[in-house]
Structure to design on (421 residues):
């Protein structure tokens, strides 16, 4: 038996299949539905050897949280799992998306921490890490990250779940700084969204679109928390390693309002300040960001969601959220060209580089800075080392010239019928 699924988290694991989360999961391959992931994360101190997730939304927030476990994971559709019997001995390859009975080839060796990545033709590539806490920062250092490209500060919560104050943020961010050694760090300011539960804010607004990120900073509950976070960052901002990123922007005046707010904290006012581009409106405002921002982070998960008009957290809508769509690739290529012409430093944030075949296309667009999950860095580094810029550009030109995502997947050597394979 060999099943081909959607790769999510690289690595190999061998063990007995189980569908039960209780008891000792060590050495087991856990088969679960996306709806069960929050329960698994509550027991993250004793994770299984590998994961198979059924009926998943590839770019949803709940799957992003799985990366903190750093265990081999693949995605299957429900009809593929009908013959998977608990107790069966299987081997899982999270890099190639394979599940079978046979032994699989070993993955490439992991790098030493702090490695500088280059393409085959010498172009440097920045493989930064997106993390949520000090443990993630330590993992990023171990995996060879060149920087912490995105700290998801919205996942820093006190225990018990009281409203965080400046002293809490000072402690949490100090631990993160220490765990990341001398790596540069970009902290994304608190980025609430309706799909990111905040335990201390039960009255948080719930809306399918719009009430998130920097748009909430004027609400009383969020304003006090943001001030606490900024106070902590001011306390830590003199070490020369920090930069800040403003989430979920649409209009340049939103960004200017944050920059003006930062004037109350003298150290923060001098730090590099980036704009998170996560909407088409923000994407078409690159000339304005060039005037006001020091750099731009392309939040591809939300940007793709808005581009395709599809909720990225809903498995039943997954086929519309197509990362191989030629129109989407042309859109990203246009952004890369415009950013390069403007001299605007840009980095790709999110899961897109980890989707099979797409890292080559992003390199072909000219992107050279990426912030990804720490566990993905060795695999992407291996791809970068073997990639040639001119070959990647030719492949991109072909992908942008076809009419369907099936044709793009075929160009990339993937199955045309199931996205991601």
């Amino acid at each position: 038996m060999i099943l081909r699924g959607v790769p999510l988290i690289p690595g190999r694991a061998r063990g007995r299949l189980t569908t039960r989360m209780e008891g000792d999961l060590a050495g087991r391959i856990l088969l679960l539905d996306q709806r069960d992931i929050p329960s698994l994360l509550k027991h993250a101190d004793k994770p299984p050897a590998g994961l198979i997730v059924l009926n998943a939304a590839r770019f949803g927030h709940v799957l992003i949280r799985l990366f903190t476990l750093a265990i081999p994971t693949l995605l299957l559709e429900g009809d593929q799992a009908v013959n998977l019997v608990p107790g069966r001995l299987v081997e899982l390859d999270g890099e190639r998306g394979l599940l079978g009975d046979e032994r699989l080839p070993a993955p490439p060796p992991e790098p030493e921490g702090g490695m500088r990545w280059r393409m085959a033709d010498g172009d440097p590539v920045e493989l930064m890490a997106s993390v949520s806490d000090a443990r993630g920062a330590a993992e990023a250092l171990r995996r060879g990250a060149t920087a912490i490209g995105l700290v998801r500060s919205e996942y820093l919560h006190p225990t018990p779940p009281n409203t965080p104050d400046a002293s809490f943020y000072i402690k949490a961010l100090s631990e993160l700084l220490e765990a990341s050694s001398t790596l540069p760090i970009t902290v994304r300011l608190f980025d609430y969204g309706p799909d990111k539960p905040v335990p201390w804010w039960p009255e948080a607004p719930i809306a399918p679109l719009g009430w998130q990120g920097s748009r909430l900073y004027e609400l009383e509950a969020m304003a006090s928390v943001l001030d606490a976070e900024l106070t902590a960052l001011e306390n830590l901002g003199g070490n020369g390693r920090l930069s800040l990123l403003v989430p979920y922007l649409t209009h340049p005046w939103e960004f200017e309002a944050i920059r003006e707010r930062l004037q109350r904290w003298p150290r923060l006012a001098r730090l590099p300040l980036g704009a998170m581009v996560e909407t088409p409106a923000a994407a078409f405002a690159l000339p304005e960001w060039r005037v006001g921002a020091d750099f731009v982070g392309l939040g591809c998960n939300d940007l793709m969601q808005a581009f395709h008009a599809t909720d990225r957290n809903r498995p039943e809508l997954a086929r519309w959220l197509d990362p191989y769509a030629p129109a989407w690739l042309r859109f990203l290529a246009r952004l890369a060209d415009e950013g390069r012409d403007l001299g605007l430093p840009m980095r790709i944030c999110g899961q897109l580089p980890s989707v099979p075949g797409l890292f080559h296309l992003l390199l072909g667009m000219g992107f050279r800075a990426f912030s990804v999950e720490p566990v993905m860095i060795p695999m992407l580094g291996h791809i970068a080392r073997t990639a040639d810029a001119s070959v990647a550009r030719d492949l991109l030109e072909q992908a942008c010239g076809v009419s369907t995502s099936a044709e793009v997947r075929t160009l990339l050597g993937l199955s045309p019928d199931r996205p991601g394979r």
Q: What stands out?
A: The first strand starts at residue 2 and ends at 4.
